[in-house]
Design goal:
The chain has about 850 residues and is α/β, with parallel strands linked by helices. It has 19 helices and 46 strands. Among the domains are: about 150 residues, Beta Complex (Endonuclease - Pi-scei, Chain A, domain 1), CATH 2.170.16; about 190 residues, Endonuclease I-creI.
Length: about 850
């Protein structure tokens, strides 16, 4: 991120120290743009002759060009007013201790060193026109991964730089490309060798400090064939249970292409599974519902709300700070590394939302199934050579009435049933109905410890599920007064799966049930030694004031009661899940193990060139929050060869003007492009963004998603190009642009261009514009939110699909940037 002194709000400048008056430049050029300035830049960098000649060609081309008609404001820029070069250190450091103190303070406030220690494979920092710091993990160096600044790369890898520099974005490509090639300063150079998978992100930070400073970084990323960049965010032990929507299975047993439940409550497919040895600390997170305790490594992100963000009173006498219900219900959960969680923080329990009712269940059959779960069993009668379905009830009057009620239910279906008394005290209902035996076995299972509800049942509408549950509780449940006005409902089962399913069914009815385990033990009954099985106990109260658990939508916020740590040495497992990058562990949302990333940068006028060779994967993420007087003019382009995947994930929240249209040229068969562009425009801002997908080979696919928000007179525009060339047969593309206007002064526009030259192409395009309604704001403000907080909540909801594409760290940063914009804390 970057900004300048005069436009930063006082509180923001004080908190984040974004302007350094103590900066001491080793070299600072003169204002203006001419051949002498360009030659001086090349001389100071000790560049080869070919690079100086390329710079001069680009400059001459730029000076000969006219301002593009579709961007007239570019003609209003005084290109002679900028300093095109400033150096703050004599050389780039490879140790943080070598970086000048005033620069360290800046990047410490941005969290560079903290981020590097926690989750980065490599870090680059660009201050003004030069690289001040580059670091890469030793393990990656051994694998041949190169991550350095472009100036160093020009000296250490001259052949590679000469081969690829300017091949994706040549200097004569466009107006800004010509300027940028002439005066480019620092930037990042990344080379991933064939077959190498970088499992943590490489990240670059860019900063402008001085007034009238131009920063023109040049980034070049080359992924050799079948290389990948994966961001591993922690793992789980083999026996940890993952929700599949109708049951829970150990992560060990889940494979690719299987379905799991994601953070939204919807089903998503597993695209990859990871297994690797792990030796270190394993955390056990114990929520209020102790039976939902789960284990994972400290780095694995968990969806949570920190208690400190919703507290209204400080801790007293050893008690946790009191949480405000209003704040808790208004809070936006964020992914937090498990190691950063604390007792009292709130986890997010997710209720699955998929519903399907293609069954022939009636109220009668559901009532019978409920009683079967509680009291029924299926066995084989050798004498009659028949299966028998039996229900055992107690000796009380209530149990007797229940037995006869069940008999009548069975008879109402045209099946035979009888009631008998065992040893004169207990009541038993018996039927030999094959139809009912099959029904119970299919949808409820056989055996006390292995009973479980079927997938068909778990997808039924809530009202039908509750018919079964109410009758289950008649048999296995009991009610008692916890206090004079609080009725507690309690049930127990020997089936762990059934216990989780009951908890989920109750959650669909907006009831959060606590789940605990009573371990099995040896016992004696009338001299006979028996082994009692584990019992899984479900209990809940309909009075929420006795619990801190709160619900919003299909999420319950559940406090952490304890966090245990233990040494661990064994295999650990993780999943990559499509779309939402998340899955549920015992009902609680955790993040994907992998979200591929190459860089998160804040850009001024930049060129980013990426080359994804056969079968490789590159994902480039940008969170941009430049000061409101920065002109952000960027060309970002990638070449995707056969079976390669390139993804641009782009957020633009700062700058006076942004023009940025990430593009992917699909050069090889089955290449894939994903472009997600999001923009926020406030007072005095124009965000002109979008994306381009150029299909030049058969069986290629692309997706362009754009979302924008305008406030206080800001203007957003979507500008996109979809081109399917002749010969690019069977190409598929989806384009969607949505805009949200927060007031009547703000505006938005769309400029979609589609050029389809193949008859068998599949193309979809959707667009929408919406406004925030007064009713929405009134509703939220009536719940205790300020207008700014209410707007922030609406905007966060609108941005949610984009945020879910981000790795946890960047999603947190995005929420912070949006909150600053909504509360006018910046510029």
């Amino acid at each position: 991120m970057a900004t300048k002194t005069e436009t930063v709000a006082d509180d923001y400048k004080e908190k984040y120290g974004f302007s350094d008056s103590t900066a001491d430049y080793v070299v600072r050029g003169t204002r203006g743009l001419n051949e002498d300035v360009v030659k001086e830049i090349s001389r100071l960098r000790d560049e080869p002759v070919w690079m100086e000649e390329l710079r001069l060609k680009a400059l001459r081309h730029f000076l000969s060009m006219r301002t593009p008609s579709w961007a007239p404001e570019l003609g209003l820029i005084d290109y002679q007013s900028f300093y095109y070069y400033a150096r703050s250190t004599a050389k780039s450091a490879d140790s943080w201790d070598q970086v000048p103190e005033y620069i360290k303070k800046t990047y410490d406030k941005l969290g560079v060193t903290e981020a590097e220690q926690k989750f980065l494979s490599g870090v680059g920092a660009i201050y003004e026109s030069d690289s001040v710091y580059h670091s890469i993990q030793k393990e990656l160096e051994k694998q041949g991964v190169v991550f350095t600044d472009t100036v160093t790369a020009m000296k250490e890898y001259p052949d590679i730089m000469k081969k690829y520099f300017g091949t994706v974005v040549p200097y004569n490509d466009n107006f800004i490309a010509a300027l940028q090639t002439a005066v480019w300063s620092a930037g990042s150079f990344v080379l991933v060798p064939e077959g190498v998978k970088v499992q943590m992100p490489l990240q670059a930070y860019f900063r402008i400090n001085a007034k009238n400073m131009g920063q023109f970084e040049r980034t070049l990323i080359i992924a050799e064939p079948h290389s990948e960049v994966n961001y591993i965010e922690g793992c789980l032990p083999a026996d940890e249970l993952v929700s599949k929507g109708y049951t829970l299975e150990p992560i060990l047993a889940i494979d690719t292409r299987e379905d799991v439940v994601a953070e939204s409550g919807k089903i998503a497919s597993v695209t990859k599974k990871f297994i690797h040895p792990y030796e270190g600390v394993m955390l056990t997170i114990v929520p209020q519902s102790r039976g939902n305790s789960f284990r994972l490594t400290p780095e694995h992100p968990v969806l949570a709300i920190k208690r400190s963000t919703v507290a209204i009173r400080k801790s007293r006498n050893g008690w946790l700070p009191e949480a405000s219900t209003a704040k808790l219900l208004a809070a936006i959960p964020e992914y937090v590394d498990a190691g950063q969680l604390a007792v009292g923080d709130f986890l997010v329990y997710v209720v699955p939302t998929e519903v399907s009712d293609n069954s022939s269940f009636t109220e009668t059959t559901l009532r019978i199934l409920g009683l079967y779960l509680a009291e029924g069993s299926i066995s084989f009668n050798k004498r009659l050579n028949l299966d028998v379905l039996a229900f055992s009830f107690g000796k009380s009057r209530k149990e007797k009435e229940l037995a006869y009620e069940l008999r009548d239910l069975i008879r109402s279906l045209g099946e035979k049933a009888s009631v008998s008394r065992s040893r004169g005290t207990y009541y038993t209902v018996v039927t030999y109905s094959k139809k009912l035996i099959d029904l119970c076995a299919t949808h409820c299972g056989i055996g006390a410890a292995t009973k479980a509800l079927s997938e068909v049942f778990m997808q039924l509408p809530t009202e039908k599920q509750m018919v079964l549950l109410v009758n289950y509780l008649k048999g296995d449940g009991n009610r008692y007064l916890k206090t004079h006005d609080s009725l507690m409902v309690r049930a127990s089962t020997a089936s762990r799966t059934l216990a989780f399913q009951i908890q989920e069914v109750l959650a669909r009815s907006r009831i959060f049930a606590n789940f605990s385990v009573r371990k099995g033990s040896k016992d004696k009954i009338k001299g006979r030694e028996i082994t009692r099985k584990d019992q899984y106990i479900i209990q809940y109260t309909e009075s929420p004031r006795w619990s801190e658990v709160r619900s919003r939508g299909n999420h319950f916020f559940v406090p952490i009661k304890r966090i245990d740590r233990q040494d661990f040495k064994d295999l650990v497992y993780n999943l990559e899940v499509e779309r939402e990058n998340s899955y549920l562990v015992k009902g609680f949302a955790v993040h994907n193990c992998t979200a591929p990333v190459y860089s998160s940068q804040s850009l001024h006028s930049a060129i980013v060139e990426m080359i994804a060779k056969k079968g490789s994967l590159i994902k480039y993420t940008t969170l941009q929050n430049w000061s409101k007087d920065v002109l952000n003019l960027v060309t970002k382009r990638a070449h995707a060869h056969e079976d390669a995947t390139v993804s641009w994930v782009d957020f633009n929240g700062g700058s006076k003007l942004t023009r940025k249209y990430p593009s992917v040229y699909l050069l090889g068969p089955r290449a894939k492009a994903d472009i997600i562009s999001v923009a926020y425009a406030g007072s005095g801002q124009t965000q002109d963004t979008g994306g381009k997908a150029i299909h030049l080979a058969p069986d290629t696919t692309s997706k362009i998603i754009s979302r924008s928000v305008s406030k206080d007179g800001g203007h957003t525009a979507y500008r996109g190009l979809l081109h399917i060339a002749k010969g690019a047969r069977n190409a598929k593309s989806t384009v969607r642009c949505d805009a949200l206007l927060l007031d009547d002064r703000s505006t938005t526009a769309t400029y979609p261009y589609m050029e389809i030259q193949e008859d068998d192409a599949t193309v979809t395009h959707e667009a929408s514009v919406g406004k925030v309604g007064e009713d929405q704001l009134f509703y939220l403000m009536s719940r205790g939110l300020s207008e700014g907080d209410a707007l922030s909540m609406v905007v966060n909801g609108f941005m949610e699909p984009f945020a879910k594409e981000l790795p946890m760290t960047y999603a947190v940063e995005l929420n912070r940037l949006l909150a600053l914009e909504m509360t006018n804390s910046v510029g």
